[in-house]
Amino acid sequence: xxxxxxxxxxxxxxxxxxxxxxxxxxxxxxxxxxxxxxxxxxxxxxxxxxxxxxxxxxxxxxxxxxxxxxxxxxxxxxxxxxxxxxxxxxxxxxxxxxxxxxxxxxxxxxxxxxxxxxxxxxxxxxxxxxxxxxxxxxxxxxxxx
Length: 145
Description:
This protein is α+β, with helices and mostly antiparallel strands. The chain is built from four helices and seven strands, in the order βααβββαβαββ.
């Protein structure tokens, strides 16, 4: 299993294919809502096992804020800790960036406890995104001296 940031168009296409499978195929999200035009300005993370894309996410950074988005794991790989490995990988990299001090994400309600394990706290009201209940969550990263 390999997890890493990707840059090639082919690897980004693998991320998009997995997102289509999970969000559009399984959760009924429309193409217009899932493919929102922001992929070119995000960094993409991909987990590959035996040549197959099995988990993906993207990170959009603006100033000192990084937003983790579109976290998904292929159905056959769920319940094995891969989602946690993806979040840990992303957070480790964000902690290594001098400019990022805060991380935000929009969690599907069923995943709140999952993100709380990493120190994320709910903020604001719940809302619908693509017809799915969500809650914004934030994590302040420790500042370096």
